[in-house]
Amino acid sequence: MNGLRGLENAEDGLTLKRVSVLKELHRLSQRQFEWQRGFLNMPQLYRSAFIYGGEKTKAFFAENNGFSMDDFTLASFALRTQFMEKPGMLRHIDMSLVGISKTTKNAILDLISIPHGEARDRATALRSGGGHTGYKPSLFREYPCIAFDDRVFAPLPDLVTLRATTGLFYDVISGSGDVKNEVSGRFEGYCIELLQHMLPSRNVRSSFKYQLKKGFSVDSPDILVGDDHETVSIIFECKARRMSYEARFSEDPVADVREAYEEMAKGVFQIWRFVSHHRRGIIADGQLCANVKGVVLTLDTWMSASGIMRDEVFALAQKRADVDSEITKDDQVPVIFCPITELEEVLNVATEDSFFKAIDEATEGRFQGWMLWGVHQEVASDLGIDNDYPFKNRIGEVLPWWDQLEDIGE
Predict the structure, then answer these.
(1) 177-379 has CATH 2.60.40 classification
(2) Element spanning 204, H or E
(3) pTM for this structure?
């Protein structure tokens, strides 16, 4: 470990000759923050099971793998428990006690494990070439287990949990457009319901269609939040796109994965366009607060700790806005980027007033480019609040085996 840290420190010195330290913060945050949050918690389990739990997505998963998504999440939960006790196990372990047959267990181990020899070859190919050692891709994300003949080892058991939650992405990315649209729609649904539960005195409503011109309608942004049905004070646009390795760890992500960051810019533009249409009377119903704010709400940790990248994405959004000559500077309201994990964290400790104050402050002055939880820590007067996660008693609805755990334990 000391040798590795010494190598990475030396490479940091070379990297910082090319890359601004402020831009390098993005890669550091992508590397560290998810481990600090942890992988086995109620929001992670429920959110992933809900988002990837649509009928079309689960059908595609089962057809592609030969076992159900429910069996996969249950087996992974059990395996992670086993690996926390001992780093390795015999492949022929009996999982019938938790309802996993021998055939299903073997198929699941084949999905999440890779033979040691093959792992060495693939890791060598993945990590060869130039670039910073600390930011090269890891085979463990897709294959958290390594197989040695009849034994299986999980060097980092938490990655077994990750593989069966957000890592379900690996199993559905090749699905049809219908599968991807279902995942995106369920992400929006999760965000709406989360905000409705955590902001009970505010009006939280979903997207609607409005007429732009005869025969041509437009969707409003995904979530509108206000003090009443007529007033909108926060406009949310949801983006369920997952981050590629390059989007997380490239030295210049916006240039290297431009198409992905164009989608983030599109989210900003969609908020500005909605404000413009309101001002121009195209949308007749309701009104916007004078200090209305926008939030691009993401499934992955896009734009974390990345003030410079944020500016680059806003420049891309500005190019889109320039095409529509009627979008004025006044229409370009302040917008922040917020991953869903961060929104959950803030709502867990916020009052409704402190949440709205954090959104307001995040777009102003010294807080521009800050992460939302950091802004909330600075501006909230009471940090002793601990709100319950609203779906903790509903996890059995998306993970049918969850309510059986107590009986299995007995």
Answers:
(1) no
(2) strand 203-206
(3) 0.92
